[in-house]
From TrEMBL:
Signal peptide: 1-24
One Pfam family recorded for the sequence: TraB_PrgY_gumN
UniProt protein name: TraB domain-containing protein
Organism expressing this protein natively: Aegilops tauschii subsp. strangulata (Goatgrass)
CDD domains per the UniProt record, alphabetical: TraB_PrgY-like
Keywords: Signal
Key word Signal present: yes
Length: 160
């Protein structure tokens, strides 16, 4: 497995990168989780944070990459974190999850399966399982916009 100090370093790198993207989009880091908690409390629903554990996702993602791709990815993350140039506000708003998906699929196509498709299936399973196990009528899940179509598809197409 991929763990230890290397995994911790990559997790910290991804957290800093995510935080920078959030602040660049004028959205406080973690705001979606706070909003979901408020909504679930308001409607009396169970809140499900049902994404796959980051360790499994990172391990699957790294196994999908060649050594050259791993090096390129780490360099790209460092550049993204250390860049001091700010985009104009209208350009920040224009970057959608679908544009990021397209960039990811062209730069690192092997990452789509572990980072997107597998997680879509896992999140759909978590929502269904939570509802069934806890006999809840309503479940609130936090799902990134880029995962919405895949999770909805997985929920609708799974007859289990």
């Amino acid at each position: 497995t991929w763990g230890g100090q290397s995994a911790l370093a990559l997790r910290l790198l991804l957290a800093v990168f995510s935080s920078k993207i959030s602040s660049g989009a004028n959205r406080p880091f973690g705001e979606e989780f706070r909003a979901a908690r408020r909504v679930s409390e308001d409607i009396g629903a169970q809140l499900v944070l049902g994404d796959r554990p980051i360790e499994i996702t990172l391990e699957r993602a790294l196994k999908s990459l060649s050594w050259d791709e791993k090096t390129k990815l780490v360099i790209s993350l460092f550049r993204g974190i250390t860049s001091t140039t700010d985009m104009p506000q209208d350009e920040k708003a224009a970057v959608s999850p679908y544009e990021l998906y397209e960039k990811l699929s062209s730069s690192y196509p092997s990452l789509l399966q572990p980072l997107v498709h597998e997680r879509d299936m896992f999140m759909a399973w978590s929502l269904k399982r939570s509802k069934a196990v806890n006999k809840s009528k309503t479940v609130v899940g936090v799902i990134g916009k880029g995962h919405m179509n895949g999770v909805v598809y997985a929920l609708i197409s799974d007859q289990g």
